[in-house]
Design brief:
Helices cover 29% and strands 18% of the residues. It has 268 residues and is of the alpha+beta class. Belongs to the tRNA methyltransferase O family.
Length: 268
């Protein structure tokens, strides 16, 4: 084969690669556009619903139904909830967060009860310490655009689409979740101190948590199969961890503090 033909063959390979990349980008743009269109439609529907409930006198139709009893409101599907508290854990970002609670046993979280729910909030916790576990119903309040699809692609199914109700996807109607949590202790806000770790109790426990996270390989399917960059970053409690994955093993390259506690620190 002449050098000219070899050069043409190389150019054709490069063109095919560029075309493949462009097709993927177009597909991603279409998916992003479809999501934006769905979110826009939902926003318009919410505006139309709000306008339809208001009459020309400026009064809302809700005023006419405000005297409905609680059972009547429930029968019509009108459910109002008040959060009793907010949860923070040693996993502050999505990267590295285990998909199941049993993967990382040493991990801990804190549920801060809102003081405004009861006049005497400490009375609501009397007797709770007798139990080993508690059920927690929570809201995915940081889902962003709050849009959802009937079919999703769970990371562990290698791109297979299944119904959202058969998965643990947080992007679902009503954005509600349920978890079983082990009750460690109940403490008053005045008992807060400032340990080196906010949730973990010792460097040994932090090391065990890091090993548990890495043993489950928290990388996405794309990063495991297609991405050439083997570096992976995640946060655990008050530490940022840098690691890289090889063939059948993971190595921690750096562990550094993330800095002082943020404004959400309950002890601040």
């Amino acid at each position: 084969m002449s050098p000219l033909c070899e050069h043409c063959g190389e150019n054709m390979k490069k063109i095919h690669q560029q075309v493949s990349v462009m097709r993927k980008e177009i597909k991603n743009l279409r998916q992003t556009l479809d999501g934006a269109v769905r979110a826009h439609r939902k926003h318009l529907m919410s505006i139309q619903a709000a306008v339809s409930k208001a009459d020309f006198s400026g009064h809302s139709k809700k005023d006419c139904t405000s005297s409905l009893s609680a059972p009547g409101a429930l029968e019509q599907g009108n459910i109002q909830t008040v959060p009793i508290g907010y949860i923070s854990s040693c996993f502050s970002v999505k990267n590295g967060t285990p998909r199941q609670p049993t993967i990382c046993g040493p991990s801990r979280a804190q549920l801060r009860i809102q003081q405004s729910v009861f006049n005497n909030p400490e009375h609501a916790l009397v007797g709770l310490g007798q139990y080993s576990h508690v059920w927690i119903i929570f809201l995915f309040h940081k889902n962003g655009h709050q849009s959802y699809k009937a079919k999703v692609k769970p990371p562990r199914l290698n791109g297979q689409r299944v119904g959202v109700y058969s998965t643990r996807s947080p992007h679902r109607p009503n954005s509600l979740g349920l978890t079983l949590a082990k009750l460690d202790k109940i403490q008053e806000p005045s008992e807060c101190d400032r340990p080196r770790f906010r949730f973990l109790r010792s460097p040994e426990e932090a090391g065990a948590a890091i090993r548990a996270v890495l043993s489950a390989d928290p990388r996405s399917v794309y990063r495991r199969t297609r991405c050439r960059d083997r570096l992976f970053f995640f946060s655990l409690d008050t530490a940022d961890i840098t690691c890289w994955f090889g063939q059948g093993f993971a190595e921690v390259l750096e562990v550094r503090p993330v800095g002082p506690p943020g404004p959400e620190d309950p002890c601040q």
